[in-house]
Design a protein that fits this description.
Layout: E1 19-25, E2 30-39, E3 42-52, H1 59-77, E4 81-85, H2 93-112, E5 117-120, H3 122-130, H4 137-147, H5 157-182
Parallel strand pairs: 1-4, 4-5
Antiparallel strand pairs: 1-2, 2-3
Helix pairs in contact: 1-2, 3-5, 4-5
């Protein structure tokens, strides 16, 4: 079974035109996604959401569903780059393993369409978005709302987290461009 590549925008990162980034907050139960565009010095959210299946499902069904939905998001919003949160491994190795599987599916969806992927640690995302690497979810959610000029905090929190990942990448890219221009 083969599939055709999804048509998309020029994959080369642009320093002058709009840059559309898909952020992914992977999870086996719920995977958040958010699309942020940088244009004319402004950052704004284009869309966000969460992918999940209700009820008891086998892990492979959940992963396949996440893959299909992320492919649809990529086809719809045509990002030039993908930013993905790396799993945080604390005490629960089983949970980290499941998140890693969902992350792998997100990487596969990006790779299948030729999109470059940029991983970010949770603390780096929180630091970039809220100025504090140990901020809680509510703080990050509010900072995403403020920085993207949204009327309300994005829901569910998985979508907000994904917007934070995309926002983190956009802010990093902006800093890289400014450093290059200063040289």
């Amino acid at each position: 079974m083969s599939s055709k590549p999804v048509p998309r925008l020029d994959p080369r990162p642009s320093t002058s035109g709009p840059l559309v980034v898909l952020g992914v907050d992977p999870g086996l139960r719920v995977t958040g996604w958010g699309v942020v565009v940088a244009a004319n010095g402004d950052l704004r959210a284009l869309a966000s959401g969460a992918v999940g299946l209700r009820g008891k499902r086998r892990p492979e069904e959940r992963l396949h569903h996440i893959f299909r939905e992320l492919r649809a998001v990529i086809a719809r919003w045509q990002p030039a780059e993908v930013a993905v949160e790396d799993p945080f491994v604390a005490r629960n190795a089983r949970s980290a393993f499941a998140i890693g599987e969902a992350r792998a599916v997100a990487l596969l969806a990006a790779a299948e369409t030729g999109l470059p992927v940029h991983p970010y640690a949770p603390a780096a995302i929180k630091l970039a978005v809220s100025g504090y690497g140990r901020g809680d979810k509510a703080q990050v959610q509010e900072m995403v709302r403020l920085q993207l000029g949204l009327d309300a905090a994005p829901e569910p929190v998985d979508a907000s987290d994904a917007l934070a990942v995309a926002l983190c990448h956009q802010l990093r890219r902006r800093a890289e461009v400014r450093l290059a221009e200063a040289r």
